[in-house]
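Researcher: Batch entry, complex prediction.
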Amino acid sequence: MDRRHFLRVTAAAGAGLLVSGTASCATSASSGPVAQTAGTATIQSNLSAPAAKAAIDALVKAFNDKKGAQASVNTVASETFRTQLPSYLTSANPPDLFTWYPGALLKGYEEKGLLLDISDVWQTMGDYPQSFKTLSGRVFVPTTYYWWGFFYRKSHFAKWGVTPPKTWTEFVDLCEALQGKGVIPLGMGAGSDSPWTAAAWFDYFNIRVNGAPFHRELLAGRKRFDDPKVKAIFTPWREVLPYTDPNGTAIGFQEATTAMVQGRTGMLLTGAFFADAAPKDAIDDIDFFRFPIIDPNVPLAEEGPTDGFFASAKSPHVKELKEFLTYAATAEGQEVYIKASSGTVLPTHPGAKDSGTPLVQKGRAHLKEAAEITQFFNRDSSDALQPTADAALIRFLQQPDRLDAILADWQKAAQQVWSS
Amino acid sequence: MTRSSTRVPPILLLFVLVPLAVEGFWVFWPALQGFWLALTNWDGVSPPRFVGLGNYARMLDDPVFHTAATNTAIWLVLFGGLSAVGGLGLAVLLQKERRGVGVYRAALFVPVVFSLVATSLIWQVLYQPGGIFDSSPLADPDTAIYAVLVPALWRQVGYVMVLYLAGLKGIDPGLYEAATLDGATAWERFRHITWPQLGSVNSVVLSVIVIDSLRSFDVVWSMTRGGPYHSSELLSTYMYSTAFQSLKLGYASALAVVIFVLAFGVIVTYLVRAFREN
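Model: Structure tokens for the complex:
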């Protein structure tokens, strides 16, 4: 869910940090953020959006009402959280639990011995699918996840007389049909504050053309961005560029959402969190379809970013925090969370009920059908690699003819990230 | 004078030394550590690894650093230059007390009151495609830096104007009367009275605009984040994203040192020259 908060990042936090410039590099380790209470597990949370904050508050309240161990939440703006995470973890008195997602960053911290081994919590999670287990390792407990797809309004598609496509050819035909009706077929909101949304397109083309294993290897630095196989995915992308909103690199995610909801664009490749931002009266009208299959021989993969908790190795409240994690992993805990949230997230517990709307049920089935789940560009690689993708992909959208130079520059920038 | 009147009361000493100690511990000491970190590779978690001048050598070979340095130079010249010229011009125009002049002064100063982040958001809406422009100048790598410069200037001009207005108020009106009696033209009065009399204000304005342009960050970060593809990157935004997005704190500290040296260098050079002239 960090993607959602990404959108609400305040530059103010950044500005504040800059003033202290070099200072914050050196002092951050001593600016541990929490007041520890004996016997209470403190959760450092980046869920600062109102709906998400209400959800975690409800979860913690339900946990505390059981009169076992106690927990408390400390909510921090997501950008502050992200930039301060290393200092939280290395401080002498860190918070006990953190909201986060599995991925390269967590693996790095695990290797440095900063994270608590919570494999005994996993003992209570026997009915979780293996995929979540593999993803989490010994240090992470997943609680919710969501899905990506092309979202559209049913009433608009009906008005335009079009239906959702399944194959790539049908998809291109759909774009052409919409353009013929004077609608911009494909929305895009990769402007100033949300360039990362372009990475969804990259991820999907790569997992559709080259498959999820190649995608993960590429993002882990074991393949190159100037590989001919990477270059190949831009061929279908170029094919639909004429149907993509020409202002797609100028407007942000919110404006792109509005454009689609108002029918100026036909559809938008986005995560389910999009529905949270859509007006309430439009929610029932919103549906989505799978990113079209390009090569039927490639096993079906979908993006299913997962969120949850990890714990600090230095925590003095191991018993309490494990009790909390165990509860957060139960169907009950997740149902409490989802009920209080905006409702578009899915529970990771296979037996937990989701919010039950047709959209969410479809989303759950959508991910179940996939043979492979990827997380998202920054989660499968790192937050450090994301800006290299932003630069390369926005440039591709603006200057598609300079692909070779773009991929060469991307590889160079990525190598700098991997080598440091 | 008796001895007791020259002795500093302990309470005053306390008022000076305690803040100094706090400042020293929380600002100077970490800042000094920044210089040390600039010689290391540090991810914020593992112990820093000493690399000598490696971070500085890397800058020479880093295309984004080159863009950021060039943009910072452009920024310094345009943001600094235009705000100084514009601020002085407006101050001279609005110097005379006449009816309604306060309204104009206030109007020009208002942008200074707004948070620059709020200002940026408003300008972002103005720049939106389909508004004033067909396509957003923020999204075009050739124009992004200038599009960000405009709101920054819009704010800074009012600030510099106030500094100059204060300076102009300090000039003895008798000088102008004498010059007018001698038959000096408006330009001659400006050239031989106003400008030399503004000497001390000029050094303040110079320091302010150099420091402000090198630490310009919020306006760029909230409008473009240094994009599209680094085309509007300043040294400050590049330092921030290097430190907190890429977690390369060593390299980012080296960038911070460069910013510091630039700011310090420009100001010290000017002050030394100014003192010599005096």
